[in-house]
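Z., the sequence and structure:
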Amino acid sequence: MTHAFSRRSFLAALAAGTAGPALAKAPLTSLHPVARGEDLRLRTLRTPDEIIAAARLDGRIGFAVADVSTGKLLEAHDPDIGMPPASVAKALTASYALETLGPGHHFVTRLVATGGIVDGAVQGDLVLVGGGDPTLDTDKLSTLAQQLKDAGIREVRGRFAVWGGSLPFTPVIDDEQPDQVGYNPAVSGIALNYNRVHFEWRRQGSDYAISMDARSEAYRPEVVMARMVVVDRNGPLYTYRDAGQRDDWTVAKWALGKGGARWLPVRKPELYAGQVFQTFAGAQGIRLKAPVVLDAAPEGGTEIGQLQSAPLRIILRDMLKWSTNLTAEMVGLAASRERLGEVASLKASAEEMNGWAKQALGLRSVAFEDHSGLGDDSRISAADMMRAMLAVRERLGLKPLLKSFPMRDDQRRIVADHPLAVHAKTGTLNFVSGLSGFVDLPDGTELAFAIFAANTAERDKLSREERERPPGASEWNGRAKRLQEALIERWGVLYAA
């Protein structure tokens, strides 16, 4: 059980004595330092072995913590074992993108007319050109349609087309996830609403009224590229089928109740964005044909509108806060494309990032298969993740982009005035939990750390359908978080100067 304590008792413990010198190597056994004055806080401090035993996690646990000012390793447990990082991987992806693209980089979505424009009529095609912006949303497409009208366009005589080939297409981030989870959409050079479509249902007599739309704060444009059918069956809960020009879904009737809503993944990003833009153009009085998907970027043409993303630094800050998988994959792919000129696949991009991490940051065992940490086969050791945090803190300014990690008491209530300030990236999969970042102690000492826990044997037992809400996973991950907090509290007392 995590030992919670107040700001007053924590500071009193620090004032009573010192915890001893920093260690150049990880201790082989747990430490029981006794400061001058027989400080009770230090003498009763739980060892790492006691904290690990109390967590009852089974599987493997690895951690490493270092002093930022010296880089010296202070304490570790199985630090060199490769562990699944889950979304902690996004911290490395953010660093990769910052170094390659720069914090001020913008992604640009363009509207291009081919064949010339005569008296407000586009003589050729109108093309929506994706520029790899992971934050494109329905409201922004409405703005782009307004730009089309403001440019004086009244008619398009050719096709309305969409190109998303600036990044390689992949239908899912991880093919071992359930079909219906919104955090596992297709990846392309164009994305709308994180490539999720909103599915809503309401009971009407013995049946259901269903909508599939691209809703935002201001709009709810319906789409036909995603269709849902309610089926009277015992299972599975959802099914998906690629119907060529459409994502075909079914859902088991028994699970719907009186009504509800959820986001489903989009597998056809170009058609999704195209249909929404077509709707907004129509609202401006500009009739477009049904969108078609281009295999190659349009050559030449006249740009008649564009949307520019926020600076990359802001995109990454939000990605680290909300842990959006699609953002991680798109910015990682964009960075690899910048380095290589072209990138063949998501896996090839991850391999390029692995090489960068080894060369630029001195990592030894990083082996990611994607940029988000969603895939089961990604691995990194706690020592390597800690080294990465040390390397990128000043070099790339990552720390201010990391989310504040709240410390909690034994009743899981947030301690608002906790004396330790933690900024870190969390990572959670079923029976996998990670945390890596920085701890600021009240005396000014700063620590960099990484903590990983994984019961891969239990995770491997799950079927694809069970992975959305498997029994026991929530409780396991809760115990993993308490382990993380207990270790951080230990370090806060033990390593204050």
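Residues 1-38 have pLDDT under 50 and may be disordered. The radius of gyration is 26 Å.

Let me know what you think.
H.
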